[in-house]
Amino acid sequence: MIVGTVAVLIAPDEIGNRVAPPVTVVSDIGAGTLSPEEQSYADGLRPHLDVLVGEGRTLENLGKARSRNIVELSLRMDRYRTAARDIKQYIQVHSTPPGMAGFITELSQRIDESLAAIDASVEAIRRFDWNALGQTVDNFSLAVDDIARLAGTPVAAASQAK
C-alpha cells in the first residue's frame, strides 16, 4: 500500500529519472567555424544532440557491460529514440543551410544506423542470440562514436582504438 501511494505521488517520468538519471553531454558543432546562419541552425540541434550522445554513450557502456537491467536499458533507449526523432523533426521543419548539408546527411545516416542497431539488439535478446548481440552492440558503438564526432564531443579513448 505504501509503495502504491508513493508511486502516485511521484510522476512516472520522475520515477524513470530516479531509476536512470538522464545523461547529456555538451556538444560543440562546428567549433567556431560556422557562419551565423549555420550557428543558429546548429544551436537548434544542440539540445537534442546533447541528449542523443549522452544517452547513446550510456547505452554503449551498458551494452559492453552486458547489463541485464531491462528497466534502465528501456528508459535510455526511449530517451535515445525520442532525441533521434526530435533531431529528424528539426531537420524537416528547418531549412538546412547549404554549408551544413553534408553534416546533416551524415548525421541522419548515423542516427539511422544507431536505431537499426538498437532494434537488432532487442531482437537478438529476444532470440537469446548472444553472438548477434555482441555485434549489434559494436555497431551501435561505432554509430554513436560517429555521432559524437559530428556533434563535436570527445570520443572515448577505448572507442578510438577500434
Q: Work out the helix count.
A: 7
- Report Rg: 17 Å
Strand content: under 5%
Which H/E pattern describes the elements? HHHHHHH
- Mean pLDDT, all residues: 83
The level of helicity is over 70%
For the record, the count of structural domains works out to 1
Task: Explain the overall architecture.
The model is unreliable at 1-11 and 156-162 (pLDDT under 50). Helix content is 75%, strand content 0%. The chain is globular. It has helices at residues 2-9, 12-19, 36-64, 70-93, 101-126, 130-151, 157-160. It has seven helices and no strands. It has one domain. It is mainly alpha-helical and 162 residues long.
Keywords:
162 residues; mainly alpha; 7 helices; disordered N terminus; disordered C terminus
Please describe the topology of this protein.
Layout: H1 2-9, H2 12-19, H3 36-64, H4 70-93, H5 101-126, H6 130-151, H7 157-160
Give a short summary of the structure.
This protein has helices at 2-9, 12-19, 36-64, 70-93, 101-126, 130-151, 157-160. It has 162 residues and is an all-alpha fold. The chain is globular and about 50 Å long.
